[in-house]
């Protein structure tokens, strides 16, 4: 049985109470679709990515077809997600590598995933947790911000924060707590003007307590 501090236990309990069911907002039917959608989601809203991938996957439904797509066509389809030149190159190269080195199947291993073009630990962990059920903490800007405000992590680098959180959070909640933090960040704990008065963690949050002194 993992030892968890009372502080962490209360945070976990309240997050579960307020966000009992959490799911990625990126539409997908396969691990490959989620992988490509997550690459496209960098600096773009999930809603916009979903509009784009609906068109993209209708035309290129798997790694073989996407690997054979023309860059110009990909750029036109994904233009609205931003940074479309790099994203088009990455998703095409990613599909090609999956097709040639992994027989068209998205790998489960973190090292193999992060060797794919355009795939960092965050993207890899999204796929591992959502599609393969592997315990993994996804650290995006919301998770980075909230874990810092709550004092659960002190580093600024997402990879270092991931390992800090792995040290203080029980493995059983890794897959859901990242999404719960994302929900909290989008609805209450905003970057510029957090709605601390509405937050169900405000009596615990070190940032709120410091501001009240």
Overall shape: elongated
Give the proportion of residues in helices: 55-70%
Unreliable residue stretches: none
**Gyration radius over CA:** 18 Å
SS-derived structural category = mainly alpha
Total strand count, please?
A: 0
Mean pLDDT: 94
- Helices, by number, come to 12
Alpha-carbon distance between the termini?
Answer: 37 Å
The fraction of residues in strands falls at: under 5%
Largest sheet: none
Q: What sequence of helices (H) and strands (E) makes up the elements?
A: HHHHHHHHHHHH
Could you walk me through the main structural features you see in this protein, from its secondary elements to its overall organization?
The chain has 213 residues and is mainly α. 59% of the residues lie in helices and 0% in strands. The chain contains twelve helices and no strands. The chain has helices at 6-18, 31-40, 46-59, 63-67, 71-78, 84-101, 110-113, 121-132, 141-149, 158-168, 174-187, 206-212. α5 packs across α6 (84-101) and α9 packs across α11 (174-187). The longest helix is centred in the middle third of the chain and has 18 residues, at 84-101.
Highlighted features:
mainly alpha; elongated; 213 residues
How would you summarize the topology of this molecule?
Layout: H1 6-18, H2 31-40, H3 46-59, H4 63-67, H5 71-78, H6 84-101, H7 110-113, H8 121-132, H9 141-149, H10 158-168, H11 174-187, H12 206-212
Helix pairs in contact: 2-8, 5-6, 9-11
